[in-house]
Amino acid sequence: xxxxxxxxxxxxxxxxxxxxxxxxxxxxxxxxxxxxxxFSQEWHAPSRGVELLMPxxxxxxxxxxxxxxxxxRIACVRGPGSFTGLRLVLASASGLARSTGxxxxxxxxxxxxxxxxxxxxxxxxxxxxxxxxxxxxxxxxVHAQAFRLRAExxxxxxxxxxxxxxxxxxxxxxxxxAASMAALTPAGGYRAFVLGSGFYRNREAAVxxxxxxxxxxLPLPESCGHPVPATLLQAAADxxxxxxxxxxxxxxxxxAEENLESIAGKLGLDPLKARQKLQKxxxxxPERL
Length: 289
What we know:
Blueprint lengths: L14 E6 L4 E7 L5 E8 L4 H15 L7 E9 L3 H18 L2 E6 H15 L7 E8 L2 E9 L7 E3 L4 E4 L9 H6 L7 E6 L1 H4 L2 H10 L2 E5 L9 H10 L16 H4 L1 H7 L4 H12 L7
Helix pairs in contact: 1-2, 9-10
């Protein structure tokens, strides 16, 4: 059976491919030379990204009458987020770059979500109120970063904190998400917009601990909690590209790495040698061909 296709427009000669699997959604976005959207795909498939990514790309390109040789730029969300998802898109981007000669750029996930919400904040005229972006790290733990609208900053957002990894609730009240928010509290009270899976999955606990600190959280809609294709393309257009593989941004050790000595012992392996081998495997990236 012959696959249906149509002639791609002239502007599709130089393509930008954007990949994101930082959370449960696998996103594939392709833009043309003018950075206009050609097509996108989104799959809610937390454990099936490896099976879906390359077949989905191949099918989409074939239907659009394109070949991967036209890809000139590949932008990938490099973290923080799912360890498996990040490795999947970064490894795929590296392989595609080697076969097509495309240049690579990494995108940070938390500023991307801030960029996603920026039009809404601008619409309601909120330029001074901080925005906290919180994504799920693991149970009771979130990746967190605070921003404020500022036109001259990248993405139009000025970061108020580095990327933090914080418990929503903790026995030590000085270590919690609410405590970090309170550290930015101006005299006379504190209000903050908040979005992301780290908030939506811990809404009750986050609100309770914030109220205990005298903080008012202003939740943005859950639709702001994952980047739309236009946001991904905008970020890709502003990114800096090179011929160097994109390093992942994990923000915290994975659970297996944190428990490596225990796992090695159960397998009858020397824990020190297991740690040394892991360090060797993860301390560098392969050389470009």
